[in-house]
Amino acid sequence: MCIVSRSIRKRTKTLGFVPKFLSQTQASDLAKFKQDLKSAKEVVVLSGAGISAESGIPTFRGNDGLWRKLSCPDLSKPSVFRDDPGLVWEFYHFRREMVLKTKPNAGHIAIAQYEARHKNDKKVTVVTQNFDGLHAKAGSSRVIELHGNLFKTRCTKCNEVLVNTDSPICPALAGQGSPTSNKLTSDIAEKDLPHCKKPDCNGLLRPHIVWFGETLEPAIVEQTDAVISKCNVCLVVGTSSLVFPAAAYPSVMAAGGTIVAEFNLEPTLISSTKFDYYFEGPSSVTLPEALNE
Ligand code: BJW
Ligand code: ZN
Q1: CA angle 226, 227, 233 (to 5 degrees)
Q2: What is the CATH number of the domain that holds 223?
Q3: Separation in Å, CA 237 to CA 3, 49, 102, 229
Q4: Do 86 and 111 reside in the same domain of the chain?
Q5: Which distant-in-sequence residues (6+ apart) come within 8 Å of 42 by Cβ?
Q6: Which of 64, 144, 212 to mutate to test the pocket of ligand 1 (most atoms within 8 A of CB)?
Q7: Domain check: are 67 and 159 in the same one?
């Protein structure tokens, strides 16, 4: 399958305006991108939910991104957890159980294999908005998780972060969290939800996920700033580029001279103005084509 690509940097620079998307397939852009990648020493893959869609995990803003008719901004707020932690835990229990059954797809694997092939001549870092752990499962060794991880908990009292892959995470959640139920409140009592095991704490645990209005972990932001400031080529994969600060990184990199290539099913709002390359199609197809030498 040949991927549709559009090279836009030269035109925006010389003409001073953004042309309409070019209509014909330009296979030569793929060759040019591969040439750019060849000379890169530091490569960043900035990924979003689209890369995991073909592993069976719904995207946030796609057609199947609703849970009980609620969208991600309806649920991903600290106030919702304060009001009904049981409801939020049901939502995360459903997602944990679903993700436990998934596997990395050809897109995740192409990135991990590219890193392995270039372990002596390039630094490849994945900066992901996803919290499904599939990049690490595929074998990527440098993964920065901007928005946390479904299989980590954080104590609301002592802030301890722990990995937890228990299924279910607590007995009260067994069989709960159906996405098709009409219930918008939970019957699960707070005392039956996961709690901190430190005897002197016993605080309520929450998913270690960054919700809207919460700041990203300072150490994560620092690590990300360090890799994006040195990056030569960035692949922006499967993100709508609507959520900040992640949405700002490609523009920051492009402004600093990084070559930026977008891989998506459809152009995003910023792709026509900010990026050098646009490769259209499912990332399980476009990434192997772009990364396999
Ligand atoms: C495929 C494909 C295939 C499909 N192949 N492609 C500056 C301006 C305006 C607002 C703000 C700002 N700075 C901060 C804010 C507020 C807010 C924000 O960004 N709001 C916007 C919505 C406007 N940001 C925050 O609150 C952040 N905190 C912060 O900045 O703190 C400081 C601060 C606070 C308040 C004010 C100002 C400063 C935290 C954001 C945390 C987001 N967390 C979530 C949690 C979800 C929880 C859950 O569901 O469990 O993270 S939101 C959700 O969106 C999730 C994702 O990681 C994130 C990004 O989504 P993503 O990955 O892009 O997915 P989709 O679904 O949107 O797109 C999928 C794409 O894939 C599409 O393009 C498809 O076409 C494509 N695709 N199949 C290739 N096979
Ligand atoms: Zn604790």
Answers
A1: 145
A2: 3.40.50.1220
A3: 14, 9, 19, 19
A4: no
A5: 122, 123, 125, 227, 230, 231, 232, 233
A6: 212
A7: yes
Most confident of the ranges 15-19, 177-181, 237-241 = 237-241
Q: How far is CA 120 from the centre of its chain?
A: 26
Nearest by Cα to 139 from 156, 175, 114: 114
Residues 163 and 39 in one domain: no
What is the per-residue pLDDT across 89-102, written as a single tens digit (0 to 9) for each?
999 999 999 999 99
Q: Which ligand is nearest to the CA of 238?
A: 1
Pocket lining for ligand 1, CB < 6 angstroms: 48-50, 53-54, 59-62, 72, 76, 129, 147, 209-215, 238-240, 242-245, 263-266, 268, 282-283
Give the domain range for residue 122: 1-56+103-147+215-293
172, 76: one domain: yes
pTM of this prediction? 0.92
- For tokens 């008719």, the residue is 69
